[in-house]
# Entry
Amino acid sequence: MKKSPLVWFITGTSGGFGSELVRVALARGDSVVATSRDPEKVEATFPNCSDRLLALRVNLHSISEIEEAVAVAIATFGKIDILINNAGYGLLGALEEASEKEILELFQVNVFALLRMTRAVLPHFRKNRSGHIVNISSMWGLTAAAGAGIYNATKFAVEGLSQALVQEVKPLGIDVTIVEPGGFRTDFLGKSIVFSSTVIDDYAKTSGALRTWGETSHRTQRGDTKLGAEAIVNAVTSQHPPLHLLLGPDAYEDTLQHLDEQRREFEAWREVTHSTDVK
# Structure
């Protein structure tokens, strides 16, 4: 028996992974609710799919707008099968260089907007005893880099809440996947990056080096965004979707190196670790 088309709800779809994910989902014959700051651009990108594409302008800071978008999606297509929390951006700068405003705004989008959207969709998924939540994290949600500490913190938060979430919802028939890309030729180092407004010379060789990389590496990354989007859709629609999906050899190599270093340090200090129990 042929399975009925899926309904995808994807945030941050005006470019990069978001746009490519819309493309792949529509090519499968599925329907897509695509939120962005520029829904007209999304509609223009996919002009022949108006019957299966609902492009919405949604303020992800607004719980009421998010809940309304979810209600409109269900009223239009009858259901939501897969939520992809893709909206987000980066911030490069040392912890001391980043301003309070820059830090708070990054957490608002990368963490709190994701939480709001997830919480708005969960009642529908629980009612249907099915659904899949896909949170776009980063290899920098598993490893850290000088100059990316605030961004690391937002993605580490996504990792933690996702790992707890899967334990809460798996018994209800709901899946969770965390996508951890390495470097892809998206708009991450273009329109989707912010550099801290303050620059401190003492950090020139640490966070400053990453700032220089960010300013000079746009569109030179190894990853093909189209292939990355296809890999995400294929993994999410597989019979046994993963909790963690690393994308790109750089993500794989750096993460495994980090895990090996952690294990060596844990083992080196094991005696101290075990010495703290009540005697």
Summary: The radius of gyration is 20 Å.
